[in-house]
Amino acid sequence: MSVSQSNSLIEPYLFFGGRCEEALNFYQQAIGAEIEMVMRFCESPEPPPPGTIPEGFENKVMHASLRIGQSRVMASDGCGEVAGFQGFSLSVTVESEAEAEQVFQALADRGEVTMPLAKTFWSPCFGMLTDRFGVSWIVTIVAEQS
């Protein structure tokens, strides 16, 4: 059986290079993400192998899960590497222009707007940005079908 024929899920797993807790709190406050669980390296039932994490990372996030709408995003501080988010965007689809504006502005706080929210031929409201952590986002509402 191939993955495309099973009930498999694809869930993004983001590595924040030491800023995971800050990112979780930001997404919770900015867009109402629900933090489902957080496990720190020091809470692991098995300690990481020696040299795996940098000194001072014991209280950093080993694994976290957050729910944004109907989707789950997993996150971690990683093993000390610098976060680098390239080649993808998280796309959030909302129900109204007012909600799109609120989500867009919240995510753009101290980030960079790539394409301001505007009407396009495929959506009455579409915009792109990179948040303060370097994560690329697309905010859109679905066009009404005629």
From TrEMBL:
Coiled coil: none annotated. Residues 10-139 form the PhnB-like domain. This is PhnB-like domain-containing protein. It comes from Allorhodopirellula solitaria.
